[in-house]
Design brief:
Distance between the termini: 36 Å
Largest sheet: 4 strands, antiparallel
Number of helices: 2
CATH topology: Bacterial Protein-export protein SecB
Number of domains: 1
Number of strands: 4
CATH superfamily: SecB-like
Helix content: 25-40%
CATH class: Alpha Beta
Radius of gyration: 20 Å
Order of helices and strands: EEEEHH
């Protein structure tokens, strides 16, 4: 008789995989007095890197604009290596799409804030995000693409 092993979820490593900053209109960008419009985009992707080991990369892109002029664009790819074992296959995607990005977001937020500040702009704090709501919306969008009428066939 085989023994059921306990589920394992642990953080093995958190690191910045990619980081970029563009200030296309420097030095004039620093003379602007208007408050810029801030646009934030999030994207996460998980992949298996070994048996029971996964890499998740949360990419956060922040664009600050005044009208059509971009003051700065920051993109941070915050990554983590996570051990996920003895967990049912259907539960792995939600872990990689919700739990891991929730863990990574505060690190990405701090990285972006530090980089924007070091670039000479006022400090920027990104508002917390609900990765579960983003995941649920993505599932609904996929379902709508599969069944554009909104009707789900009964099988």
């Amino acid at each position: 008789m085989s023994e059921q092993q306990a589920p394992v979820f642990s953080i093995e490593k958190i690191y910045t995989k990619d980081l970029s900053l563009e200030i296309p209109h420097a030095p004039q960008a620093f003379l602007e007095r208007e408050t810029p419009e801030i646009e934030v985009q999030l994207h996460s992707e998980g992949s298996s890197i070994d048996e029971g080991m996964y890499q998740v990369v949360l990419t956060v892109t922040v664009t600050a604009k005044i009208g059509e002029k971009t003051l700065f664009l920051v993109e941070a790819g915050q990554a983590g290596i996570f051990q996920v074992q003895n967990i049912p296959e259907q539960d792995i995607e939600p872990i990689l799409s919700v739990a891991c990005p929730n863990i990574l977001f505060p690190y990405a937020r701090e990285t972006i804030s530090n980089l924007v500040n070091r670039a000479g702009f006022p400090p920027m704090l990104l508002a917390p995000v609900n990765c579960d709501a983003i995941y649920q919306q993505r599932l609904m969008d996929q379902q709508q693409q599969t069944h554009p009428s909104g009707e789900i066939p009964i099988q």
